[in-house]
Design goal:
Layout (H helix, E strand, L loop, with lengths): L1 H19 L3 E7 L5 H11 L2 E7 L2 H9 L6 E2 L3 H9 L3 E2 L29 E13 L24 E4 L2 H11 L9 H18 L2 E3 L2 H7 L5 E5 H10 L3 E4 L7 E9 L5 H11 L2 H11 L6 H8 L25 H16 L2
Parallel strand pairs: 1-2, 1-3, 6-7, 6-8
Antiparallel strand pairs: 3-10, 4-10, 5-8, 5-9, 5-10
Helix pairs in contact: 5-6, 5-12, 6-12, 7-8, 10-11
Length: 344
């Protein structure tokens, strides 16, 4: 009996050792940004363990990195990619290990935040616009663009996305300025625009909860990201999406490898897997955001997301911009945003 018991313990020990010896890939990305079956399949394919942590904002991600937490793969937005590059916090990508990158939509590559895509490849992309209830909003009012958010006809009927960067983008664009404005006079004017909105419109500040609320038809208008708009429209046929002609934030969330990565080869395998047409399609259908893979994007816009213009963000408006990282401006708008919301 003792020999049998010893043998069983030996087997358990060996199996436990094998489990422990599996390489572990640490990924840090946005919440609800992946079909979770993809993680399981990746672990099985590459005999590894994936720790998949999630963040709610680029700033929250950055703060966690500053605390000493280390990851292999990160999924920051464009301006944060720029910041991480400037701070030498990323490793250059080995494109020999990323053959699926050849399928990326050309217009998404070589953007200002990483001109040669030395450090990043797109994961999802889109813009910011307004989702509105066609049963409530007068079509004639849509010509007001971003200024419809200050139309008192819709008082107490709007959601404003609780993001200082996106809120100031809206105000600056409504005023005819660049969303990357650094002129203090323009920033102060944007502050007054937002302060007036806050005091006259009784807005509700929301983040991801805006999705379910707009599906339920709880408000008439909401600032949203295009992928969220596509999902809302799919669930509620009364909803439509407007991207004002004044311009908006064209954004790219990208995959990068941290300089602290311990699983560099496995990190490349992860990125390459995310860029495969099969996985990219699973993720795009699950999340609702636009795929960076040309073949997947072309297929889904005519099938799963047919008729949902939020899935096909425009690429041709010269007034649309990508955020640039500017620490000085960030501090200014952070302080002003606190003042705006303090009035609520």
């Amino acid at each position: 009996m003792k020999k049998i018991a010893f043998s069983i313990l030996l087997i358990i020990s060996v199996l436990s050792g094998c489990q422990t010896n599996k390489p572990t890939l640490k990924v840090f990305s946005w919440g609800a940004y992946i079909d979770t079956t993809v993680i399981t399949a990746f672990e099985k394919e590459y005999h590894c363990k994936v720790i998949y942590d999630m963040f709610e904002s680029n700033e929250a991600m950055y703060t966690k990195l500053l605390s000493g937490e280390k990851y292999d793969v990160l999924v920051p937005s464009d301006y944060m990619v720029q910041r991480l590059i400037e701070e030498e916090a990323l490793l250059p990508l080995d494109y020999d290990l990323l053959p699926n990158a050849s399928g990326i939509i050309p217009q998404l590559m070589n953007r200002e935040f990483d001109p040669q895509n030395t450090f990043s490849v797109p994961y999802f992309w889109g813009n910011v616009g307004l989702i509105y209830n066609t049963k409530i909003v007068d079509q004639k009012d849509l010509s007001q663009g971003w200024n419809i958010l200050r139309n008192t006809k819709y008082k107490s009927q709007i959601y404003v996305y609780d993001s200082e960067r996106d809120a100031f983008m809206v105000a600056l664009k409504a005023l005819g300025y660049s969303m990357n404005a650094s002129n203090t006079v323009q920033l102060d004017e944007a502050y007054r625009w937002l302060k007036d909105l806050n005091s006259t419109m009784d807005p509700v500040y929301a983040t991801d909860d805006v999705i379910d609320n707009m599906i339920s038809g709880n408000k008439a208008i909401a600032m949203v990201y295009s992928g969220d708009a596509a999902y809302i429209m799919a669930e509620n046929p009364d909803m439509a999406y407007l991207v004002p002609d004044q311009g908006t934030n064209f954004w790219v969330d990208a995959m990068v490898i941290s300089k602290d990565a311990t699983q560099i080869d496995l990190a490349h395998k992860w990125i390459n897997t995310m860029l495969s047409p099969e996985v990219a399609e699973l993720n795009s259908v699950f999340v609702g955001y636009s795929s960076p893979i040309q073949s997947v994007y072309d297929t889904l816009k005519d099938t799963e997301f047919e008729g949902l213009d939020a899935y096909t963000p425009r690429l041709d408006n010269p007034k649309d911009e990508v955020f640039r990282y500017d620490e000085h401006v960030k501090l200014i708008i952070s302080e002003l945003w606190v003042k705006v919301k303090a009035l609520n």
